[in-house]
Amino acid sequence: MALLRAPRLLLILLVAGCARERVAEVAPVRPAPAALVAAPKPAWVARKVVPNAVDLAAGTATVGPREGLTQVAQRTNVPVGAIAAANSIMPTAVLKPGQQLKLPAGRLHTVRPGETGIAIARAYGADWTRVVAANRLAPPFTLEVGDRLLLPSKVQVAAMSIEERAAAFKINIDDLITGAEPAARVPHAKVAAARPLPALPTAAPKFDWPIEGRILSAFGAKPGGRFNDGVNLKTSAGSAVHATADGVVAYAGDAVAGFGNLVLIKHADGWVSAYGHNQAVLVARGDRVRQGDVIARAGATGAVDEPQLHFELRRGRAAVDPVKVLPPRA
Prior knowledge:
Structural class: alpha+beta
């Protein structure tokens, strides 16, 4: 009997297995989840700084067990860099339990979307270079939304000389090129108000003239101790100003005295081009441009009284005579 039941049992198992196979064949296939598409990052937009800092009084702090500068900064509400600067130590310094640290006085400002270092300093009447030193900021001085900066107190600003106060509101092209007025970076996806500049290739670019027109003022020394870091080209109001080479717009605004509406473009191999006195600017910070793209309309803004383009080429901070780099003019 056992021998007769064995084939029947085998048959049952085979039928059951086929049934499972048929079920597997007709089982509905779950659709794959839709691909997640990252939302495009909006262009960085500069916003006016509202000087609403919190006043900080001078004091001291005792280092506790297993505390570093980060922990002391969190406990005292004073930025790490400010504590480091006040005590002449590095932000990465190793502390000892019981060590006494000076806490500087001043005003504590929290960086918000669209704010830049220079704009923050100007809002409080402070010299940007002093703010850099007081917070132990390092080039390129890129700030993140939520960072905290220690600014001079009202008493400290009032004690500044007239010359120091005037210097606090001076910005030059060197400041912009070296990153003293960067866009604030977004530390995480929840805050979408800024973006870092895209990376550039490293090969040296080939430049072309941004406009046609004779040279009104050549590169070099001028009477009265002045020096032209570029060339001024005669043009008519509203003429198209073209990008001299491929690059990324690093600045577009009118914060630099004398240059009116100014555009800076970063190029490969450390080169930067500048376009001043524009009637209108057609690009924004972070825009990628190709050689020949129209980036502005020429005008007479800034310290000039006739339409012209102030054009500079720099390798890092060093100004280079465009005539020696660009193609010969017809």
